[in-house]
Amino acid sequence: MTELTRDVVIVGAGPAGLTAANELKKAGLSVAVLEARDRVGGRLWTDTIEGAMLEIGGQWVSPDQDALQETIAELGLETYDRYREGDSVYIGPDGVATRFTGEQFPVAPETERVIAEVTARLDAMVAEIDPDRPWEHENAAEWDTISWEAWLRGQTDDDEAVRNLAFPTGSAMLTKPAHAFSLLQSLLMAASAGSYSNLVDADFILDKRVVGGLQQVPLLLAERLGDDVLLGRPVRTLAWGDDGVTATTDAATVRARYALLAHAPILYSRIQFVPALPRRQHQLHQHLSMGFVIKVHAVYDRPFWREQGLSGTAFSPYELSHEAYDNTNHGDERGTLVGFVSDRNADDVFRLSAHERKARILDSLSHYYGPEARNPIVYYESDWGSEEWTRGAYAASFDLGGLARYGADLRTPVGPIHFACSDMAGAGYQHVDGAIRMGRFAAANIIGQARA
């Protein structure tokens, strides 16, 4: 049994934990990072599958993500634009694929008007929300007791408009059915990106990628920490008190002045706390849950859709794959499409055999791109719901009423125990940018306490 003594023990070697560890070391504090997996990166994972480099986890960088962009630049990494030349494709309730350009879906004029009016209403509401403290808005309690779907249905009886308005924060981001989370939670999701309009704009949210994959960010951050990062060390017990903490794994014990839990909050229950966490935290964590989405990677001998004048960008609230994009790697002659199957649709296809699930998903992609989409040379499904140390995607969100009731306590330290991950970010919520922000925030708090 390895025994270590450090100033801070960090649980989780994702972007939040590794950012915090580097900040703490710069301030002269010693650290040990305990990671349950056999790799660093958390929900960032770039791997080679059948000869194709795939970003199994997070991958995109948007213009508002200052913390991530600063880190990418500081690590000497390069970015490139997502391919977006040509027409996008939209499939409406009639099942017909329609090509279009710009941000507006090719819907009936009345539906387009409703979408524009409700979007403007949402942008005005989002502008009043502080993403770091959405529960402080005067209408927070009210907005947190009505579901996102119920609010939208209260704005219009145009079903196509409702479906298109619902999916940016529902199927696409929180990856939950629109009836399962609140209007306030949806407004927070939008506020974290600057506006609801930003979330709707794929060219904004899915702007750039990192050459070689986004997992290089945690890999390079971990390199700087060297032997202070210990892999394959799930923490079983965390004893804590006024004199500090003791984190115990199957192969190591770390005694420290402070602990930072830098992983998804739904995994706190995997750790035995001695003594138990306060009642408030027990209740809070029972109102958080992960969404569920399958990220589908389909690699072809060439990006055939470009020959048709298509950008690869496709949307439909009526399709199994509700959105898809050109995900061709930098400098790769092959073409890659990435599609997403979310919430209840993801549940449904996992009741099928792997062969039938693949056929159904590729058939959905063929509705956007034509029959060639049914025959990739590499096919892979990112299923984070089955990951032992993640259990869903992309992040945890509150049930109805939970955000207004418990949100203010999400980042509040418990004695020497601090918390940081993308799930509790304001700006950059559920993105790598938010993880980096939370890593910096928690490190600053610990440094302040250590120097007090």
UniProtKB/TrEMBL annotation:
Ribosomal protein among keywords: no
Cross-referenced InterPro entries: Amino_oxidase, FAD/NAD-bd_sf, Flavin_amine_oxidase, Flavin_MAO
Annotated residues for binding of FAD: 35-36, 235
Residues of the Amine oxidase domain: 16-447
Known cofactor(s): FAD
Cross-referenced Gene3D superfamilies: FAD/NAD(P)-binding domain
Keyword Oxidoreductase tagged: yes
GO function term, MF aspect, one: oxidoreductase activity
Pfam families: Amino_oxidase (PF01593)
Keywords: Oxidoreductase
Superkingdom of the source species: Bacteria
Residues that bind substrate: 340
Signal sequence range: none
Protein family: Belongs to the flavin monoamine oxidase family.
UniProt name for this protein: FAD-dependent oxidoreductase
Source organism per UniProt: Microbacterium ulmi
